[in-house]
Structures are given as C-alpha cells and as structure tokens.
Input
Amino acid sequence: MTIDEAKLQQLLGKMLGEAGAALGIGLVLLGDKLGLYKALAASGPLTAAEIASRTGSAARYVREWAAAQAAGGYINFDPTTERFSISPEQAAILADENGPAFFPAMFEIAAAAARDLPKLEAAFRSGGGVGWHEHDPCLFSGTERFFRPGYAMHLVPEWIPALEGVKSKLERGARVADVGCGHGASTVLLAKAFPNSQFAGFDYHEASLQRAREAARESGVGDRIVFERASAKGFAGTYDLVAFFDCLHDMGDPVGVAAHVRSTLKPDGTWMVVEPFAGDRMADNLNPIGRVFYSASTQICVPASLSQEVGLALGTQAGEKKLRATILSGGFSSVRRAAATPFNLVLEARP
Output
C-alpha cells in the first residue's frame, strides 16, 4: 500500500485531538463533581488558587486541571492576569445542569462505557450481551442527567400536544404508564404538568427505581406516582397513555413488547415511543450525532438487547421505517411520526 503523506498527517492530527478529548473525559467529570465550572460561572475570572479555595480543592491540582481545560477551549485563560474565566456559552454547556445544552452527563456515560470494556470485549468474542444492570453505576446517573433537560424542553410543551387527544385526557385525568422509566425524570415531569392524572413508572432495575421514588418525593408528586419493578413485557394495568422514552431499542423482544403494550391500552389509548433520531439508511447517519449514537449503541444498547430473550438488537439508529415495522408487527393498526428534534423521533401508535 502506498501512503499519502498529507492524508496520514491529517489523520494523525485528528487522532491527536481525539486523544486529548478522551483523556479530558475524567477532567470534565472532576470539574462537574467538584463544582469547578460552577465556581467560575459564579465568580470568575479567578486564579487557579481562587478556584481551589472556593471549591475546597487542592490548588496544584486545580492549576493543572484549568490549564488542560483552557488548552481544550472549555474555559479561557488571560496570560496578563493569570486568571481563568468561563464564557456564557461555555457555562451553558458545562455549569448549568438544568439547561438544554448541559453536556458533562454524556461524559458520565462515556466513562461507564470505558470502565465496562472488559465485559464488552467478552461479548464481542462470544456474541452474548451485557445487561443494563451490569454496567458501572455512573451510566445510570449520566443517562438521567443527559436526557432530563431535553425532556424538560420538549415533552410537555411539544410532544404531548402533538399526540391526538392526549393532552386533553391528561388535563381531565388519565392513567399513564412510563415503561423503562429509569430514574423517573420523564414520569416526574408529566406528573407535575398534569395534576389530575395518575402515573405508574416501570423498570426492571431496582436501584434506578429507588432513585425515581426519591425524585418524585423531592418534586412533591410522590402521591400520584407508583414506581414498580417490572419488565416491558410484564407490567400490569390498563392505561390511556403508555410512554417509552429512549428504551425500546434496548429491549430484546420489541415486537413482543409492542404486543404487550397493546394489551394494556384502552381502546382509544395511545403508545408514545420516543427514540433517538436516525435516517433509515446507515449512510444517512454517518455524521457527528450518528457517531455518538452508534458508539453508545455498540457499547450499551446492542449489548443490552443481546442479553435478553430474542435479542433483536435494533440499536439506537434503527430509523423510523424499522421502528414502524416493529410496532405494527406487535398488532398496532397505525403508527405516525408525531414530532421530531435533531436528537429525537416521537412516534404515536394506536391500537
């Protein structure tokens, strides 16, 4: 093979940037956990010693951390004053965990994937799976913290009104199941918005359910949400609305799940399926967003599905066509796209 030197240097430059980003994952998590970004957002510009003082951290470590962050463009450095600062845009991404642009939570997910590489290597060799519950715990908190701001922005203002007749039912009083609820972020948002309705959150991961119950109590809606341990093919009850948020693709038997959901819906009920946005062809998804989704899918979502019965392994980039076929195969009569964002696809299925 003949090597094109220019292309070689271009790829090496790209890999150098990737290495810096990979080594920086832990530093972003430290900045988040120790409140270093928040200190800069609240009081900057600051010297490294001042950041350390405000956060109860060791100054020598903070100095090295801040230099790495400035080199990566995450914060700024003024060589004249030797102070570090954070711009409004940087703060929105790194310091405001309730804002729509907050990103350190995704780095929690990446850290979990790195810590679980031995399990993934074994799965690659055997073709087996890695269950959700088998991952490092930072995956669970990172997933909730990453998705919650997007749900807060879109779920009640946009997605619920996009479903035919659902908003009015919820306002009057409806029964809702949130399946695969995890830490309960979506369930709590819905319960706060629709006080006349009753909610049930289902998940098979008990540790996540414990956190969901705490979140419901903290938000003052614990009296209208019941969180129970159950599988997506085994939850009980009859509902006006069943919601799946970014979890159908993780399930081993999504067709069987669809059939069970249909059996729990009232005749005029609705199944809302929120999935990562994707085109129907792989070529449509070879972009920065698709890269994140395919990477997460390889390390988390496909292994989760392959750890279960059937193991269909839809993956995060299944696309609307495959999702629609899966839902219809479960016995639903109609599926339509109700809403979409650059990151989400919202489907409405009717019995």
About this structure: The chain is about 50% helix and 15% strand.
